[in-house]
UniProtKB/TrEMBL annotation:
Keyword Cell membrane in annotation: no
PROSITE patterns: N6_MTASE
Gene: rsmD
Species of the source: Hyunsoonleella aestuarii
Domain of life: Bacteria
Entry keyword Methyltransferase: yes
Keyword field: Methyltransferase, Transferase
SUPFAM superfamilies attached to this UniProt entry: S-adenosyl-L-methionine-dependent methyltransferases
Protein name: 16S rRNA (Guanine(966)-N(2))-methyltransferase RsmD
């Protein structure tokens, strides 16, 4: 994986092969950040990265100037890799090792952007639980966005606060906003 833009542009980050991850493709990530670039000043926002995996999305935010990033993942190897990478590049990324649903049940930290990249084999019920918990617990700041990455085989259009989706190959980003 590589960082697309910002301070660490073109840096390659090589994750250990044994991590249980499916990193967002560079093409999809670049498209996502083109959308976000029109809505946010990256140096002014708080980001919560759920099912963070390798930290791919968080590194992109950090490279673009975001100073407040929290990654949540239940896999110890993923959290360890994110911590090591963040230290190596002096990125302002904090980590929490936790089941994401348990974290969302108790979370009080509000963010401008919440990005969730759960396993593609989740059921639609599991996918729908993410926006349900985010909005029930009011975890987005004013004008914030929840973005859930999923496969084209998952339909999130009926989930609460659904706004729109963008597809890139087999990847789909569904966007959710407060109404």
């Amino acid at each position: 994986m590589r960082i697309i833009s910002g301070l660490y542009k073109s840096r390659k980050i090589i994750a250990p092969k044994n991590l249980p991850v499916r990193p967002t493709t560079d093409m999809a990530k670049e498209s996502l950040f083109n959308i976000l670039n029109n809505h946010f000043y990256f140096d002014d926002i708080k980001v919560l990265d759920l099912f963070a995996g390798t930290g791919n999305i968080s590194y992109e935010f950090a490279s673009r100037g975001t100073e407040d990033i929290l990654c949540v993942d239940q896999d110890f190897g993923c959290i360890k890799f994110i911590k090591q990478t963040a230290e190596k590049f002096s990125m302002p990324i904090s980590t929490i090792k936790s089941d994401v649903f348990k974290y969302l049940e108790k979370a009080t930290l509000k963010s401008d952007i919440i990005f969730a990249d759960p396993p593609y084999n989740f059921t639609e019920e599991q996918f729908s639980k993410i926006p349900e918990l985010v909005f029930k617990n009011e975890l987005l700041l004013e004008n914030g966005l929840l973005i859930v990455e999923h496969s084209k085989h998952t339909d999130m259009t009926k989930s609460s606060h659904y706004s729109y989706s963008k597809s890139y190959g087999g990847n789909v980003f569904s966007f959710f906003e407060s109404t």
